[in-house]
Structure formats: C-alpha cells, structure tokens
C-alpha cells in the first residue's frame, strides 16, 4: 500500500495559479534538491533560494526536517513562478532522480502512518479543504485540532471505568468486595449515552451538499418569489408567470453569499385553503421545506391593497430566522412605497426590506442580511462543533447502540453480557482514531483527498 521509504512528489498548488508549489517528502528529499539546484542546499529547516538548473529559474524552497515536518519525514516545498510547460519539465526531472508521484492524500496518509496525527485529524485535512462556508470550516478546524479525539478519549475512559467495575465484580464475586450498585451503573450508562448523542447533535455533517444551510423563499402565489430566485441565482431556475400557482415543486440552487454559501429554494406559493389534491400536495411539500430551512425570506407584494391572506399565511410558518421583504417596489413611487412599508410594519409587527428583482433594489442588502442570519444561527452552536465524517458517525451510533444494550442487560441482571457490550462500545470509539485499521479503509479515506495533500 503506502511505502514510507519512497520519496514522493506532487504539485500542491491550484492549476490556475501562477505560483507553482511542488511538494516532496521522503528520505531522498535533500539528495534530490542538491541534484536540481545549482548551489548546495543545507539540510536544515528554513527558507532558502536556489536556481534550478534544468529550467534556469530561481525558486524559493521551504525546508522542514523530520520528525517535525507535516509528514514526519524530511519535506520540501519548491515555490516558483512558472507556466505549465516549465512545471512539467521540473516534475520529469524530479521523477528521473528517483522520486515517484504521490497518490491522492498520500502526504497526509504519511503524516498519519508516522504518528503525526490520528486518523480523525487526518480526515480533518480534507474537511478543511472542502469546507463550503465559514462555520463548516470552523468545525473542520476543531476536528483538525484533535477535539474529536479528546472528546472520544474522555468518553472511552468513562466506559473503561464502568467496565473495570463490572468485570471486577464478576471476577471476584466470591471475595469480600462491595458489589456494584445497579442504579449507579445505569445512571452512568445513561450519562455516557447522552454525551455521545450530544457529540452527534452538536456536529456538522462533512458532506458539503448536505451541510449547506437552506434558505427558503416563501409567500403567497404571485408574490414575486420565482423572479427573486432567478435574480439571486443569476439564471432561470424557476418559471415566471403572471398566472397563480405556477410553481408546484421545491426548486433549489446553490447561492454564494458574503462569508458562506447556501442552498436557496423556491416552493409553491402558500395558500390558506387548498382547492384540490395538487394544491394540497404542493402545500405539504412547501411547508416541510420551509420548516427545515435555516432562514426564510417571506415575500409580500407591496403593490397590493389587501394583505389579509398574507397575514394568514405568515401564521402558517414559524421559522427561527425570518427576513420579511416587500416585493415589486418598482410598481410604486418612493412616497407610496414608504407609506406602505409603514402599514406592513403595523400589520405584521416587523420591518420589511423593500426589494425589486426588476431594478435590483434591495438585493445587496438582502444578500447581506441572509448571510448575517446564517452565520448568527450557525455560530450559536458551531463554536465547539466538530465536523464528522460518515465513518465517525457510524462509530458513534454503534457505540450508542451498544451502551443501550448494556443498560438493558444490567436491568435484566446479566452483568457478563453488559460487560461484553461495553467492551464493544469501547472498541467502536477506538476506531475513530486508531492506527491498527484495515488498509482498505485507509485507501477509501485518503482517496477522497486531492493529489498533493
């Protein structure tokens, strides 16, 4: 699989960047550098400049010595300003001197195999790279800092303490020792189970599409929702029509905001009373989507004279974060718009942001407000959140299941079976960061990485 005695190389900079970074690590690192540089490179950590003979260009070389480098081996990064042809010439030279191309994630895999990071931290590197917003990045950084390992270690110690008490009771049942208190054991099992559940509940899924916060556009039919969706996304995602109830399904698109990204969606216009089965199904889908949204943009057509139906619709939804906007302001004069904004505030009890998708009024302010609400909502529970991969979640869920089974066995008086379930739960948590893991699992983990990382 991974050969630690090889010297590996890869381009670790973006393909469209003028500054090229070539990374190499392994036992031949300094030997190879001294064979491509005109002047000798000292084998000590630091930053040096050298002229690379084959391409006749100056480069800045960052040197990191084992065991203090990222990979645990001698490591160098060659930084130069070059085009693709020159870069390929340099790579061919490095390969001819005995280096081999790194596979996906092999630099981080080497760090893991050299005990520089645990497995959860190694996975965190990929989560940092693929993070799609500021709070997902923060959760990935918590994972990289070893927070998951710290939390799981603390829980493992609690399980081990319980296990030792149970096994001591089983092994020395004939001796003069105080028997375990069943109620105390059950209480501690429940506490441990809840700690695992809290870890899961306070985490962020690593899959980027699932992790994107959802922002819904809601309002009655023909309130300008579809036009707004298309304008914000910059493309025609939703059909726009003067006919009511044009949108039936939930239509989504990724939306770039200041500081984060989200999934923006438009759904069927909300109505107080369904007229047929299609209306009813569309309403169910719309309300379910809105219920799951982190932020809801509530649209009210300011050009109307009667907002009774909008007031009834507002009562159908109760999102955590609601942004009220008055659409179609381009149909009114500034004076009429100001007067109606005051009326809307009195009727709904909140300020409305004036917006027109036709002349771009209020769109920048709306984007800023959405981003503010997303970040505020996320930061309230992601300060200490950890980004968990599917593998982490499976281990935690399995451990929770095993502890629940142990609790049942204790209640049934089967302490031996309870001890067995606790040992299984302990092993499940050990899997999160252990080094004795199947090679196929390692291949699957690191294959998701970029080359050069």
Description:
Helices cover 47% and strands 17% of the residues. The chain has 453 residues and is α/β, with parallel strands linked by helices. It folds into 3 domains: 8-118, 2-Layer Sandwich (Gyrase A, domain 2), CATH 3.30.1360; 125-203 and 387-434, Four Helix Bundle (Hemerythrin (Met), subunit A), CATH 1.20.120.430; 209-382, P-loop containing nucleotide triphosphate hydrolases (Rossmann fold, 3-Layer(aba) Sandwich). It has a 6-stranded mixed sheet, with helices on one face. Helix 4 runs antiparallel to helix 5 and helix 5 (134-144) runs parallel beside helix 13 (363-382). The two termini are 17 Å apart.
Short summary of the structure?
The protein has 453 residues and is α/β, with parallel strands linked by helices. The chain is built from 16 helices and 14 strands.
CATH topology of the largest domain: Rossmann fold
Q: Pairing-aware structural class of the strands and helices?
A: alpha/beta
The rough form would be described as flat
Percentage beta strand: 15-25%
Strand tally: 14
**Helix run count:** 16
CATH architecture of the largest domain: 3-Layer(aba) Sandwich
Low-confidence stretches: 206-210, 238-249
Please tell me the overall pLDDT: 80
Please report the distance between the alpha carbons of the first and last residues.
17 Å
Could you give the order of the helices and strands? EEHEEEHEHHHHHEHEHEEHEHEHEHEHHH
Kindly provide the radius of gyration, computed on alpha-carbon positions and rounded to a whole number of angstroms.
29 Å
Query: CATH H-level name of the largest domain... which superfamily?
Result: P-loop containing nucleotide triphosphate hydrolases
Please indicate the count of domains: 3
Largest sheet: 6 strands, mixed
- CATH top-level class of the largest domain: Alpha Beta
Widest sheet, order of strands? 3-4-5-2-1-6
């Amino acid at each position: 699989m991974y050969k630690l005695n090889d010297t590996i190389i890869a381009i670790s900079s973006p393909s469209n960047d003028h500054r090229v970074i070539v990374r190499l690590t392994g036992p031949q690192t300094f030997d190879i550098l001294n064979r491509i540089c005109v002047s000798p490179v000292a084998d000590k950590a630091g930053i040096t400049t050298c002229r690379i003979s084959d391409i006749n260009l100056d480069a800045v070389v960052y040197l990191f010595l084992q065991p203090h480098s990222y990979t645990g081996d001698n490591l160098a990064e060659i930084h130069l300003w070059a085009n693709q042809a020159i870069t390929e010439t340099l790579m061919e030279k490095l390969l001819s001197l005995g280096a081999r191309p790194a596979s996906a994630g092999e630099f981080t895999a080497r760090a893991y195999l050299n005990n520089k990071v645990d497995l959860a931290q190694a996975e965190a590197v990929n989560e940092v790279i693929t993070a799609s917003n500021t709070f997902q990045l923060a959760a990935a950084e918590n994972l990289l800092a070893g927070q998951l390992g710290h939390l799981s270690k603390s829980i493992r110690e609690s399980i081990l303490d319980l296990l030792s008490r149970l096994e001591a009771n089983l092994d020395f049942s004939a001796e003069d020792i105080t028997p375990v208190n069943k109620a105390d054991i059950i209480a501690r099992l429940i506490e441990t189970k809840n700690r695992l559940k809290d870890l899961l509940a306070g985490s962020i899924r690593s899959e980027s599409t699932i992790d994107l916060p959802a922002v819904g556009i809601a309002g009655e039919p023909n309130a300008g929702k579809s036009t707004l969706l298309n304008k914000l996304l910059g493309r025609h995602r939703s059909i726009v029509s003067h006919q009511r109830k044009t949108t039936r399904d939930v239509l989504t698109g990724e939306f770039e905001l200041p500081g984060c990204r989200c999934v923006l969606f438009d759904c069927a216009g909300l109505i107080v009373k369904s007229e047929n089965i299609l209306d009813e199904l569309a309403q169910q889908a719309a309300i379910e989507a809105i219920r799951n949204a982190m932020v809801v943009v509530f649209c009210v057509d300011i050009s109307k004279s009667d907002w009774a139906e909008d007031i009834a619709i507002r009562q159908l939804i109760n999102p955590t974060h609601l942004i009220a906007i008055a659409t179609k302001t381009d149909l009114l004069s500034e004076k009429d718009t100001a007067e109606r904004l005051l009326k809307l505030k009195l009727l709904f009890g909140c300020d409305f942001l004036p917006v027109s998708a036709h002349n771009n009024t209020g769109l920048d302010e709306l984007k800023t407000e959405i981003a503010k609400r997303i970040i505020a909502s996320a930061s309230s529970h992601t300060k200490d959140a950890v980004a968990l991969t599917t593998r982490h979640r499976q281990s935690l869920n399995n451990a929770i299941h095993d502890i629940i089974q142990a609790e049942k066995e204790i209640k049934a008086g089967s302490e031996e079976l309870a001890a067995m379930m606790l040992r299984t739960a302990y092993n499940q948590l050990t899997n999160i960061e252990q080094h004795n893991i199947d090679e196929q699992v390692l291949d699957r983990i690191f294959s998701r990485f970029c080359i050069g990382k």
